[in-house]
Design a protein that fits this description.
324 residues; alpha+beta; eight-stranded mixed sheet; five-stranded mixed sheet; 10 helices; 33% helix; 25% strand; elongated; binds adenosine-5'-diphosphate; binds magnesium ion
């Protein structure tokens, strides 16, 4: 019922940036090539995300807002092989239980768009109504935590919440340089990144300094592949926290991986306290468990020693190009 869904939502929807993450992942899963993110008041007042993805047919809209309704897993055995970002089918339901959610969507073969508003009571969103708009989906989330004032009290300042939202956008935009991202806050455009390759997206997001002093990584060893860029220490470093690691396309902050990269910097450059990098590890999805935490930011590898060694050597070899 409503209470249970709000408690469950608390785990997933900690703050506005959690909404932004879930909606962006859905947009990417839907095959979007252009995504627009409009935020108001740090996302608390409004988070509206528009994509040009596959859309949702009107008869599926009530299910999209229902708990444990996902179109992404057909059987339990699929769980091991999930390649899409979302798969638990509870994000939209959780968001709809703590905010006013309106979903507007149009599939390519529909004459017009349809919309539905999520009721806070699970499974009572009603039927879709005719609407207008281009192909793709807009999810408009207003007044986050309007019905849970206790949770609203834990929110930080508008600028802090906005900062978390913008960081989530950067994480996903680095993972998908081919997708156009537009971000605005309180009606002002904050970022607009054209679709490009990873090197250009790194320059857009990690800055020109990073781009002018970075080395490419592209190593394969058996089923493991590491791709991306590692930054060299520069005199003027705009960001000390530009550390982006992805496993099978998903942003992670993992001790084992962070350690492997840091150890390589230590080894080759004799230390850079704040290495900056955008690295993407690809491996057989059956060799990694990404579901250890609700926020899905940590991972567990079947063979963590092999992964550590591989990442350490790949980054070391890339960095060694400087002294060569
Ligand atoms: P999950 O992503 O885990 O499947 P969600 O609650 O995030 O669960 O979304 C529920 C369903 O709604 C998805 O499985 C998908 O079918 C549909 N959906 C959500 N967002 C979009 C979108 N932007 N474009 C197309 N379909 C979407
Ligand atoms: Mg999802």
């Amino acid at each position: 019922d409503q209470l249970i869904s709000q408690i469950a939502a608390g785990e997933v929807i900690e703050r506005p940036s959690a909404v932004v993450k879930e909606l962006l992942e859905n947009a990417l899963d839907a095959g979007a090539t252009q995504i627009t993110i409009r935020l108001e008041q740090g996302g608390v007042k409004r988070i509206a995300i528009t994509d040009d993805g596959c859309g949702i047919a009107p008869e599926h809209m009530p299910y999209a807002l229902a708990r444990h309704a996902t179109s992404k897993i057909a059987s339990l055995s699929d769980l091991e092989n999930v390649m899409t970002l979302g798969f638990r089918g509870e994000a939209l339901a959780s968001i709809a239980s703590v905010a006013q959610l309106t979903l507007t969507s149009r599939t390519a073969d529909a004459d017009h768009a349809w919309e539905i508003s999520g009721s806070p009571v699970d499974g009572d969103a009603g039927q879709a109504r005719p609407s207008s708009g281009p192909c793709g989906t807009t999810i408009d989330v207003r007044d986050l935590y309007f019905n849970t004032p206790a949770r609203r009290k834990f929110l930080k300042s508008e600028q802090t919440e906005y900062g978390h939202c913008a960081e989530v956008v950067r994480r996903l935009a680095l993972a998908r340089p081919d997708v156009v991202f537009s971000l605005s806050h309180n009606g002002k455009t904050a970022d607009h990144w054209k679709g490009s390759d990873l090197q250009k997206r790194c320059a857009q997001i990690l800055g020109a300094e990073f781009a002018s002093a970075c080395l490419a990584v592209d190593e394969t060893a058996g089923p493991l592949r590491l791709l991306g860029f590692v930054g060299l220490p520069t005199a003027a470093r705009s960001r000390a926290d530009a550390q982006y690691f992805y496993v099978n396309g998903r942003f992670v902050r993992d001790k084992l991986l962070t350690h492997a990269v840091r150890a390589a910097y230590q080894d080759v450059l004799h230390g850079d306290r704040y290495p900056s990098y955008a690295l993407s590890l690809e491996l057989d999805p059956a060799q990694v468990d990404v579901n250890v935490h609700p926020s899905k930011i940590e991972v567990r590898f079947r063979d963590s020693r092999a992964v550590h060694q591989f990442v350490f050597h790949a980054v070391s070899r890339a960095l060694a190009q400087t002294s060569a």
